[in-house]
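Hello,

Following up on my earlier ticket. Below are the two sequence lines again, exactly as submitted.
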Amino acid sequence: MRIGVITFPGSLDDRDAQRAVRLAGAEPVALWHGSHDLDGVDALILPGGFSYGDYLRCGAIASLSPIMTEVVDAANAGMPVLGICNGFQMLTEAHLLEGGLIRNDHGAFICRDQVLRVENTSTDWTSGFDAGQEITIPLKNGEGGFIADDDTLDRLEGEGRVVFRYVDVNPNGSLRDIAGISNARGNVVGLMPHPEHAVEPGFGPDTAAAMRSGVDGLAFFTSVVRRALVEA
Amino acid sequence: MPTIVVEVMPKAELLDPQGKAVAGALARTGRSGFSGVRIGKRFELTVDGPVDDALKASVQQIAEEILSNSVIEDVVGIHYEQSNAELAEEAAHESAEHSDSGYVAPAGETH
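Thanks for your patience. The regenerated structure is below:
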């Protein structure tokens, strides 16, 4: 399986995402925002970072990139697309996901290992988790407050499209503790925390067993790989 | 060169952490009497050609689809203004024409 990771000007976590893809057993393909070519990949990741310096709004200018035309078409045709942090912001700006992300309610940048509850295990990116499973992956953002109007929030919850919720603390003022959502089809998922930073022992969050041994993020990537194998 | 000003504000019902921080600083420094501060954005678009209906329609669309995100923000104003240089030129022209009127338009005024 080949998974494209799109690099935008100001992307930071594109290489981490590529490494996560490789550790999950797939081939990472580096894609460039200025191209109109998805290079025949089977899935896409929009990585974290600060595309265009967060000018205008986080992810807004990147969502107008040339390659986003192909990303939107591919997403609407069912290709798995994962947006992490800045990538999540881009997916909302591109109207592939509902809602928006605003500055953290406490006004500060936050960086911490965050506990999430996986509430939907039927998406392309979460099928490897158990329903209700609690995972710990890093969270690092200044504008991660998820908002939407009440009707949209009710609909997201009613359709089971709240994929991840913050547990123990709400780190950024996100409404209803929402950390990540999916589209109706379940192929497009966006979240603020960073699964690609918790895929390799020695470089992940601390666990009860050992320092930096947390690899809870790996299942995001193995989920989409397994889905491809099942379909093949 | 005509200038088009687009003003965007965070939606009124949303918390504006930037404004809240400024309001906190005002209170801390003893500037009382302000019950709130909200921070928005002002875009100045300059155009070379005439500001006609087609351009105005285009500006409206740009304001709603690119300069703002309707989920979190509202476009609160679109103003078609003359540039400072144009106003200064006009003022100079007018004062020459009506030198006995005693009124000179302030060059820096854009409203």
